[in-house]
Design brief:
With 321 residues, the protein is α+β, with helices and mostly antiparallel strands. Helix content is 36%, strand content 19%. Strand 6 and strand 7 form a beta hairpin. It binds dinuclear copper ion (CUA).
Length: 321
């Protein structure tokens, strides 16, 4: 799945705070490491060489050690200071993460499933609510409040270029607040082991200017268009008379199940199976025929139907832009 997936290239306020804390930690640890190496080489150079026959040097017992004491006290003080700076750095970062201004925020609900992401765009007006999967669009420069829920087991929401990780816990709603300051496509990944296909539980976040975001959201709110071409029409009828509609929804048709990704605009999404394969004709056909071959363990069953029926279904799904 395409998109920037990089903690050290922050594209938003929250990721910037985390990256700054990381660089502070690296700088302090690097200074400590170099100081310890200098001390080690100094000690190795000045130590007298002895062998088995050398008598023990008891004279050091009576020697005053004010120099050594001073060195130890200085080293302990500097270590404490370094740790205090790190402590202060993490408190400041934590406060900064918790106090992102949330005026005019976009609210999005994300539900983690084995192994895909349901993304619901809430709205006070019920007709404006819509749902998509494994893809999230957000406006640049505006805060986004994502509420996180889990449908089955614990998952973890992680878009490294935008923020740290936050768990999705069954029966408990968490929230994560983020803001993208640079337009771009960012890759997200489930960051908590959640079963066989945990590694293939990816998603994309597209951060774009306000107008593009609004256009995308308006297009997503549209019900699916009726197909005009004969093959796609046949696919439409097969979809609604077969088992597809028992799990999937396509707005504007009678399919309204919520077990699996909403397919109203599936053709506009970049991948299938939460980042498993690119969303093209061949993958779509292979996915419908036997998704377990592409993503072993997936909940969707194989469909042993004639090739022309698969063809018709693909033709229909490809119209759902
Ligand atoms: Cu979901 Cu790992």
């Amino acid at each position: 799945m395409k998109g920037l997936h990089e903690v050290l290239q922050p594209a938003g306020a929250q990721a910037q705070h985390i990256a700054s804390l990381w660089w502070l930690t690296v700088a302090i640890c690097a200074v400590v490491f170099v100081a310890i190496l200098i001390g080690l080489f100094y000690a190795l150079r000045r130590a007298p060489r002895a062998d088995a026959s050398t008598p023990p040097d008891m004279a050091s017992m009576d020697r005053p050690e004010s120099g050594t004491r001073r060195t130890v006290v200085t080293a302990v003080t500097l270590s404490i200071l370094g740790l205090l700076v790190l402590l202060a750095g993490s408190v400041v970062t934590d406060r900064a993460l918790a106090t992102l201004p949330l005026a005019n925020a976009v609210h999005i609900e994300v539900v983690g499933h084995q192994w895909w992401w349901q993304v619901n765009y809430d709205d006070p007006e019920p007709s404006r609510i819509f749902s998509t999967a494994n893809e999230m669009h957000i406006p640049v420069g505006r805060p986004v409040v994502v509420s996180l829920e889990a449908g089955d087991v614990i998952h973890s929401f992680w878009v490294p270029s935008l923020h740290g990780k936050k768990d999705l816990i069954p029966g408990h709603t968490n929230t994560i607040e983020l803001r993208a300051d640079k337009a771009g496509t960012y890759r997200g990944q489930c960051a908590e082991f959640c079963g066989l296909q945990h590694a293939f539980m990816a998603f994309t976040v597209v951060a774009e200017d306000d107008e593009s975001f609004r256009k995308w959201a308006d297009a997503q709110r549209q019900p699916a268009a009726e197909p005009s071409e004969a093959k796609a029409k046949r696919g439409h009828d097969l979809f609604l008379s077969g088992t597809c509609m028992m799990c999937h929804a396509i707005q504007g048709t009678t399919a309204s199940a919520r077990m699996a990704p909403d397919l109203t605009h599936i053709a506009s999404r970049p991948t299938l199976g939460a980042g498993t394969v690119p969303n093209d004709r061949a993958s779509l056909a292979a996915w419908i025929r036997d998704p377990g071959k592409l993503k072993p363990g997936v909940q969707m069953p194989a469909h042993h139907v004639p090739d022309d029926e698969i063809d018709a279904l693909v033709a229909y799904l490809e119209t759902l832009k």
